Amino acid sequence: MTGTPRAEPKESNRSPTRTGMRLIVPLQGIVQGRGGLILGSLIPCTLFYFLQFYLKRHRSPPQNPPSRSTSAANLSELQRSSSRANLLARGSTGRAHVSARVSSIAKPNDSPYYIGLDRVREDPYDEMGNPDGVIQLGLSENRLSLDLIEEWLSKNCTDSILGVGGDALGINGIATYQPMDGLMEFKVAMADFMTEVMERKVSFDPSRVVVTSGATPALEILSFCLADHGNAFLVPAPYYPGFDRDIRWRAGVELIPVHCRSCDNFTLSITALEQAFNQARKRGQKVRGILISNPANPVGNMLNKDLLYDLLDFARERNIHIISDEIFAGSTYGNEEFVSMAEIADSEDADKDRVHIIYGLSKDFSIPGFRVGVIYSFNKSVLAASRKLTRFSSVSTATQHLLVSMLSDKRFIQEYLKTNKQRIRSMYDLFVAGLRELGVECTKSSGGLYCWVDLSRLISPYNEKGELDLWDKLLNRAKLNVTPGSACHCIEPGWFRFCFTTLNEKEIPLVMERMRKVVESCKPSV
Amino acid sequence: MELMNSGKRQLLSKIASSDEHGENSPYFDGWKAYDNDPFHPTQNPHGVIQMGLAENQLPVDLIEEWIKKNPSASICTTEGLHAFKSTALYQDYHGLPEFRHAVAKLMAKSRGGRVSFDPDRIVMAGGGEMLMFCLADPGDGFLIPSPYYAAFDRDLGWRPRVRLLPVTCHSSNNFQITLEALEAAYQSARKANINVKGLILANPSNPLGTTLDTSTLRTLVTFINHKQIHLVCDEIYAATVFRGPSFLSVSEIIQEMECNRDLIHIVCSLSKDMGLPGFRVGIVYSYNDTVVNLGRKMSSFGLVSSQTQHLLASMLSDEEFVERFLSESARRLASRHDSFTKGLDQVGIKCLKSNAGLFCWMDLRHLLKEPTFEGEMGLWKVIISDVKLNVSPGSSFHCHEPGWFRVCFANMDDETVEVALRRIRVFVGKYKEVEVQVKKSWQRNLRLSFPTLMYDENMASSPRMMSPQSPLVRART
């Protein structure tokens, strides 16, 4: 792929040819008389091609950036073009500067999500050392069950990272190049673990597993494989703020939010999905897939079987993909049953090729530092392409090594999953009850490590600015880092995501006390 | 319904369906042959010997020894368990401070302590690809002296869509980079309307195994400074320098020169000099603050496992170990290089004089049937299928002249080296006879005509096709 104008006519010829011909042929009949065939087909064809060519040229910025002096003038140019750059990654201006595509995407640190994380890093709460520090409720991390893993490790200690004597892989696993998409033993272990997590309602096949260093690169790699730069995915909103970085940033795939409302408990509606798809078509944006998170982040609800079947039908009719981010599948605490997209795909033999699942060990297994993510796809070509891309995001063999032995201990895994769920449940109950005492309600959720809290009564004015004012108050005065709905692209202002699994039970009253102060200071005067 | 997309075909992206992953190049064909029939000293002595993978197996026992002696560095041991919780949760893209300090120290040591590195400029990266995302837009160009590492096309061209513009180097002056060639490549790129964003250097060079001298480096830095384009220096083989002249890094040169430091970036890793490819540690060190900040955010796509960071922080801070390791590793490399090149010399095969790297650049021009790339391919096919050595042909490195081959020697034990040399000796001997008799080239030494044994049933359907497989793993099982 080159950036020269030479390449463009070739591209533009392909799309109008087929659509064009279907318009042109009837036109021939209109032009009667001498030269009818030529005038009737050739002229409209030529005009049509030139129109396409003209439109294509005018959509991309000029190929030769005017030579400018390298200085701040260039930087402001970069920022101004940020909205266009999301669709077209061109327009590098000066020379010795970083690429426009990278610096012009709204700097991730502008998002409250990242600002909050930074603040916690600077001033973290510590019971002894820093009791007035910022309490982290903005990172969905699970600290409730790490002791179980630690206990397992202590019972299964080895002499070193190389593992126990009989292990053939030992030093060679570290000192030699191994398959970039994961050791076979590890893929088997991951497939087994995923099967356990989904409560054995579906069986995962190791040959469909591609291992990456975390779910973040897994998502990015999938985006590179399924969509071209400038294409789009439909994604139910509110959604995880990290998607913007994972999918829009380097892969250049747009995210079109499909807004969900509190009146429906933020459940996705197929009608809304259809509307969004059609609007995208009208704008000329090519939708390549739907990205769902199930259990949903940040709301915490789960998509039921019917909805999943509807989604698959929707995707089939429009010939697009479905990416299901199921990273919280094992962190469910409600009474509903979790249904994986894999289960749906399994039952509908004909359409598996469009279903792809993202998973990882950062949430359910509490080990985000070890960087383990999975792409699970039924599509052989996607697997083949993803495997080649994992060379930039592969998992340390030592880590795979350690996890193989851990994940193969079936009894331990079952115990762990069960206990983990119980602990999340009790924290959830305590947390929600505490909020309720303050008169604050949450949506009914059944999965994830967080709850979706309604603080809309407390914001003034009732818009994004009011929400961010409250967020600022919570962060800087109450010293609680939570994620505002606007960072998650929620269309209704006043909703916040509170993660509760970074706390221990003793800290809940402290959090509630700080919340109380904010709630009282925000009570609208009657 | 869209008129175009009728049918049930699942459309992949252009990137996924293109050939730009480069894995159809002959560089990888050799691996396919190896995957199908890997050499094993006892179980498959007539298999293909892997000499196309630049892996450093020589100092492996030193690492093993250190790890066993320092159980607290591994969190799965009784001594190390206390660090488990914090390590398991640590996902900060800055990277563990101890880890960054340790890597900075290692980098300084590999450069003879003549330059120091700031740990805050160290960014974890899944390869030089990340730098390309930071520095270039799709369609931008980077100059690169050829011959160059075959996989750069994939690493830099596939997702970032950067164009690589070769700067031809000739054997007549030992493949050194000349200013004339650089200027010529630059000007022709400009004429073709390509926005040249920078110059990529591999120092020590892959596949040549040579290091750049002071005057060349100075010329190059002056060049990029003058044109105000970036300089990306791939120094992953820095500590594989086994003989003088000693390694000169770009970081040393810029200490003595006027230069816009915002243009200088270094890529390192632990896969080559430390022989630890399994850990997946790639580092970008940039003197440009914007690149460091952006790169750090991008490192989320390729963070090093915190367990690994923890271990390496310990290992690389053990200064005494690191010094001993670096010198012993260099000594072993020197000895292996010497015995291999001597063996080749005995049959009249010369290699480019090199002082670094895990390979040598073999001159087989005199063995070509015709001095063309077809001739080179023909010879290479014979080497793969008859001599059963996976070597890499120069054309896959974009070498301007046919007849050069890269052969790796650090990823095997001494006995395997002997077997390889023996096969080469036999081949060259037979080859000389072919020049007299036409049919003789297909007559094989009894040993080589044995039917190939499948080492392991699993290998036939191995999912590991197309990925590098270390021969030593096979050899030990």
Describe the 3D structure.
Helix content of chain A is 46%, strand content 11%. Chain A has 526 residues and is of the alpha/beta class. Chain A contains 19 helices and 13 strands. A seven-stranded mixed β-sheet of chain A has the order 2-8-7-6-5-3-4, sandwiched between helices. In chain A, strands 9-10-13-12 form a four-stranded antiparallel β-sheet. Chain B is 39% helix and 12% strand. Mean pLDDT of chain B is 84; it is low at 1-8 and 443-477. Chain B has 477 residues and is of the alpha/beta class. In chain B, strand 5 (196-202), helix 9 and strand 6 (230-234) form a beta-alpha-beta unit. In chain B, helix 5 packs across helix 13.
Index terms:
heterodimer; A: 526 residues; alpha/beta; Aspartate Aminotransferase, domain 1; Aspartate Aminotransferase, domain 2; 2 domains; four-stranded antiparallel sheet; 13 strands; globular; B: 477 residues; seven-stranded mixed sheet; 17 helices; disordered N terminus
